[in-house]
Structures are given as structure tokens and as C-alpha cells.
């Protein structure tokens, strides 16, 4: 029986945040100001509040300025759009993130389309989606970019490898597939209508699971030695009554017996998302200030 090596996303994210911190010091020395990230939260969704708080804390810890804007749930869409336009013009703000989901009376696409694409550090604006698809420099959604960083750190070149991405969301699955194409993988995108998913997954040297179904991918679906990136975050009942625990989209125990390497949940992909957001912000700061900066060293 093989035992997969564990891909430590928490440690990688710490290293990335430290490199971002060094770059932030350099940026401040050259420009006289800290790189700035503005985060806009509309409403009181508890999970979003936790994300926004963590983003703010980590932004400050990396030596950047954090601008938090909390708006009530009944804010008019026009007022949110006006705030986004203000942030677009604000020279202290290098990156803008509007926390999703927005309340139902707001049109998310319209809000995202109002963000200046060169400050769109979430990479959700259609201009950045198009840049990713055509290979132009832009901003790439944080979670899939974090997954590719972990894969390259583990495997080196991904060229020629067979990759299966399970899930086709705009936030994870689709950009993940684009990034893997850019790394010269042969990419299959599987989804809820895919026929015989285990057979499709069995071909893959790289499996990225971004589904939102607890422990769906079993060890016996995997090709021996495959590298498994588990994006899923699912809360399920724990062993003790009334307690819960987090699991991924991959059945970790059985996958460990077959995979070559695997990300755990928690501690795998999860910690990468905010670290990559900070990475995108420092990149935006240098690009928008017209400063030379080696982005590949991050
Ligand atoms: P989503 O609901 O938008 O998309 C899920 C995708 O899975 C869909 O494309 C659907 O076709 C596919 N799918 C559903 N059932 C399937 C099945 N039975 N077989 C094959 N495919 C199936 O979800 P998302 O936003 O892409 O997120 C996916 C998971 O990743 C969630 O658990 C989410 O919590 C997690 N996530 C984690 C992070 C992070 O680590 N920071 C970030 C984003 C999302």
C-alpha cells in the first residue's frame, strides 16, 4: 500500500505571505505608501464576515493598507456601484474585492463589471477572464491560482500531464482548466452531467476536485500515484454529538492509499486563497505604479 505525501498548503501560504510582505516593504520604500487592498462587504452573512475579517488581518500583517467598507444588506445597488467607482479612482487602493454573494436585489455581474479590471484582484471581471483565456497578463482567481502554485511546487513542470478538473464554476473549475491548459496539460473538465466520472478520473495524473460534495471522489477512482488537489470545503456532522468537522470533496483516507500526493482539508487549498489575494494585490500595486517587479519570484 502506498501512502500519499501530504501537500502542506498552510506552510506554502505562510511562505507566500512572507514573500509578499518583503515586496510590500520594497514597494513602500519606492513609492512612500503601502500597497492597499479595499474589501467591500454588503450585509451580515456570518461566513462572509469571517472571510472579510481574516482578509483584513492578513493584509495588515503583510505590511499593506486594508480599507474595509461594510454596507447594510438593504444598500441600494447604485450606492454600491458609486463606492466601487470611488475606489477605482482612489490612488491608495491597488486592489478591490467585493465579497460575494451579494444580497439578491443586486446584480453581481454588474457590480463586478464596474471594478477597474486593473484593480480586480479577484480576477472575476470579464476582461480578466478573457485575458486568462488568451494568455495576456491580468488577474487570475485566487483559489485556482493557489492550486497551480501547489502543483508546480510539488511536480515542477506540468507539461504533458493529463489533468481532470471536476466542477465547472466560474470561480474555480473554469479558471483552473484555463491555468492547466496554459501549463500544457491535457485537460478534461468533468461536471454534474459527466458520464462515468470514476472512469474519467482514472485517466488523470492530476485531479482537481471542486464540487462541494463531501468525500465524493474515492481512492479507487484514482490512477496510482496521481496528484490530488481537493478544493472542497464541506461541513459534516462530527464524531461527537452536536459537533461538526470539515471534509473535502475527496475521501481522504482511501485516496491516501492510491495517490502520490494530496492536499488535506483543512490545511491544503484553503489557506492559499487569501495568500494569493495578497499576491495579486502586490502585483497590481507594482503594475499600476509602472514599477519593475519580478512577479515570478513571488
Ligand atoms: P459550485 O457549486 O459553483 O460548482 C460546483 C461544480 O461541481 C459545478 O460545476 C457542478 O457541475 C459540479 N458538480 C456538482 N455535482 C457533481 C457531481 N455529482 N459530479 C461531478 N460534478 C458535480 O461550487 P464552487 O464555487 O466551484 O466550489 C466548489 C467547492 O470548492 C465547494 O466545496 C466550495 O466550498 C469550495 N471552495 C473552496 C475555496 C477555498 O478553498 N478557498 C474557494 C472556493 C470554493
Automatic annotation (TrEMBL):
A GO molecular-function descriptor: methylenetetrahydrofolate dehydrogenase (NADP+) activity
SUPFAM superfamilies in the cross-refs: Aminoacid dehydrogenase-like, N-terminal domain (SSF53223), NAD(P)-binding Rossmann-fold domains (SSF51735)
All copies of domain Tetrahydrofolate dehydrogenase/cyclohydrolase catalytic, residue ranges: 7-122
Assigned EC number: 1.5.1.5, 3.5.4.9
Pathway entry: One-carbon metabolism; tetrahydrofolate interconversion
Limits of the Tetrahydrofolate dehydrogenase/cyclohydrolase NAD(P)-binding domain: 141-288
Chain positions recorded as NADP(+) binding sites: 167-169, 233
Reactions performed catalytically: (6R)-5,10-methylene-5,6,7,8-tetrahydrofolate + NADP(+) = (6R)-5,10-methenyltetrahydrofolate + NADPH; (6R)-5,10-methenyltetrahydrofolate + H2O = (6R)-10-formyltetrahydrofolate + H(+)
Record's keyword terms, sorted: Amino-acid biosynthesis, Histidine biosynthesis, Hydrolase, Methionine biosynthesis, Multifunctional enzyme, NADP, One-carbon metabolism, Oxidoreductase, Purine biosynthesis
Keyword Transmembrane helix: no
Pfam families with a match to the protein in the record: THF_DHG_CYH, THF_DHG_CYH_C
Its biological purpose: Catalyzes the oxidation of 5,10-methylenetetrahydrofolate to 5,10-methenyltetrahydrofolate and then the hydrolysis of 5,10-methenyltetrahydrofolate to 10-formyltetrahydrofolate.
Family designation: Belongs to the tetrahydrofolate dehydrogenase/cyclohydrolase family.
Subunit organization: Homodimer.
Name listed for the protein in its UniProt record: Bifunctional protein FolD
Organism the protein comes from: Novosphingobium clariflavum
Gene: folD
